[in-house]
TrEMBL record:
It comes from the Bacteria. InterPro entries: Nitroreductase-like (IPR000415), Nitroreductase/BluB (IPR050627). Gene3D superfamilies: NADH Oxidase. Signal peptide: none annotated. This is Nitroreductase.
Amino acid sequence: MTAPFPSAVDQALAAAVRAPSPHNTQPWRFVVAGPRIEVWLDRSRVLTVADPAAREARLSCGAAVYNLALVLRDNGLGAQVRVLAKPAEPDLLAVIRIDGGAGRARPDRQLAEAVFRRHTNRRPLSAQPVSETCRARLRSAALAEGGVLEFLDGSSRYARVTALARQAEAVQAADERFRAESARWTGRPPESPDGVPTVAFGPPAGVPAVVPLRSSHQNPAIPTRQFEQDPCLAVVLTREHGVAADVRAGLVLQRVLLTATADGLATSCVSQPFETPGTRGPLLELFREIGEPHTLVRVGHGLPVRMTARRPVAEVTIVQSASDTSPR
């Protein structure tokens, strides 16, 4: 007997769990209640040292929301996304309502196809520049989700931002708490359903990199290589601040990452300067006139690397029967 084809909701949930997260912690839970899908923050998977306010975890959940809605729409359904910020339920981050969607235009098919190919590339990238055409598409992707993507190379902020990234990485590498937390989530076996396996690590840098790879994501068993000395770096911003803005920024980030993947570009997020108090404040101040910065994205051309695994959808999803549901 053959297994039934997965439903559109099944496909959307499988896409949601492919979202990126710090150390591949996957800090999300989903509740399916008829035509409603709730996205919740899983506090047990928040990095308490690197992300005590759960900003990066909410960013990851926002990326999962984007994948959910994208694949639902790609299947011809309507998907109305509502980002929430309720003090009474601070971990309920978003609700997606599904309808028949008759007559709705489907999203860019290339983005939906990129969901299961997108991955973090921790390896050195080539010297081939990111074209202005690609940059324009990435900026447009951010704008389409209500955010801003600003490329920093060539700007006066570039040197300051990269210096803060190096400062933050040095602080984390010397801090026993950061090292212990990273150790819990990295160096996993290749098929581990969460965390970062050693096969996904990058090589040690031959000379100090302008934008540092996390020391916890380096594999000393592979040959040392030189990373790009003038990496293409962009910052994801929102005009708003607060919990809802973190989630919104996740939608912005994921659309940018999928657009980059569809264009054949490699990406990785540079999070260290957001995670240490001594660098987060100066970083926020640097962009105060533009908006709230949420993460830095390293973009370029590189060879594909092994993707990290994800937990099964059933492990992170509750399906409620009609009798269990109540209006929210």
